[in-house]
Task: structure prediction
Amino acid sequence: MKQVKELLHLLEENSHVSRKTIADMMGISEDDVNQLIQELEDKKVIVKYMALVNWEKVEENDHVTAVIDVKVTPKRDVGFDEVAERIYRFPEVKSVYLMSGAYDLSVTIEAPTMKEIAQFVSDKLSTLDSVISTTTHFMLKRYKHDGVVLTDKDDDRRMVVTP
Amino acid sequence: MSSHVQQSSRVQSRSRISKVVSSIPPSGIRKFFDLAASMDDVISLGVGEPDFVTPWNVREAAISALERGYTTYTANSGLPELRREISKYMSQQFNIDYDYDEQVVVTVGASEAIDLALRSIIDPGDEVLVVEPSYVSYVPTVRFTGAVPVIVETTRGTDFKLTARHIEEKVTPKTKAIIFCFPNNPTGSTMTGEELQEIARVIEKHDLIVLSDEIYAELTYSGQHESLAAQTDMYDRTIVINGFSKAFAMTGWRVGYAVGPRDIIQAMTKIHQYTMLCAPIMSQMAAVEALKKGLPEKDRMVESYRHRRNYVVKAFREIGLDCHQPEGAFYAFPSVKATGLTSDEFAEQLIQEEKVAVVPGHVFGAGGEGHIRCSYATSLEQLQEAIKRMGRFVEKHL
Result:
């Protein structure tokens, strides 16, 4: 289990590193690494590999992000799961979390323009039977995402050779 | 112009600089610093400090200390709160108990602690065994006290570990103390409890005082660090030196400490009181935070060094450099003998031809000749590129 966690941490840090390097870093064989990863992929512990993109640096970037607090009425037997599913099936919905506190679902939406997000909220989200209310917050700037600081990296301030 | 010349010749006839200071050559590391600093795009494996910035909670504690006006002197031996935390830490991590009030002194980096320890116990003419390869300051610091440094050389044959035989060969009736560092800079070697027990017998037999520089203690990759002070009969003759620089990535804060027998720590505190007064209060406040809340972050950094150690040692072997497994610190110490080059030639040509900076082993004592010190406290991407360049270089010279 310790080995699995170690492997997952390394992949989470950088999944782009070659299997051989990961094996060397962990001090195990490349075959072992391949087998472990295969198992983790089969079990959907590792769900997907992707790049973390800083869209703000892309010219003509057409990404507007909004976080929407949604209050809903849970249904007998299925609770929040049914309405959550109805929401997360929309492709523009990037994440859905069930929250404790003043509202129930936290929904993140990405769309090319603010207008489209507004339209999504009024046409798709608010009209769902179980939805009681929505509060939409537009994201202005992304400083840190998934543990990664998106502003330019600090320089190495160390002297080049020290005892 | 002529008066200027006259003046300098007068200086030469009666040197203003003391004999002991004049007799100490400049550090051999300087040449490589100048070379590396004069070039662009150098990948440096020559840096003897962590590549992490001090954890934010520690930095934040210092900022907050300044905001609240903590800008004064502290007790000479350090803030009582910090000494309490150090005492607790030594007990929990290394299983040695020290009274926070009389057996702990907080210093300006471990370097000051080494100087204080030597000055506390040495009279001119005493001999001090210095175990090499080692950090560059030991021999000069011993000589500043008027003592005679006697070099004990560890070699690749014992994976740069210290043995009882090494000590027996060099010890004389004049030997007062021995100084060594494990996990070691530059070799990365460590000592197990059993190995320490073996040298403890000789140390006891010859009634030596030990300066055990354990600044890399936390950076130990298989099992737990064993302190010499925890071995049988060693507690009352061992000064343990540690600090925050390596484990907590706090090199620039200049805060270290020594723990040991009451009489020696009190003697050290006396010198510290007259020469330094105290370590900076904001650094001490940051150190308190490091010990109270910084351990998980420390563990995360150690894990990251361990991964890079594993990678880099295997990579050196794959490009044809013999390299023992370093069990601590963040240095690999591969042999370059296969290339037929001296360590100095290897390092100089490597930086000229491939722009990779390493430190030649002889800088750390004659016994380090034939090896180069490579710090793996740098990003994996940089390490991979450095290995690629070094592989190309070695292939040309094999």
Remarks:
- Chain B is about 45% helix and 15% strand.
- The two ends of chain B are 54 Å apart (CA to CA).
- Chain B has two domains: 24-48+297-397, 56-292.
- The CA atoms of residues 30 and 92 of chain B lie 39 Å apart.
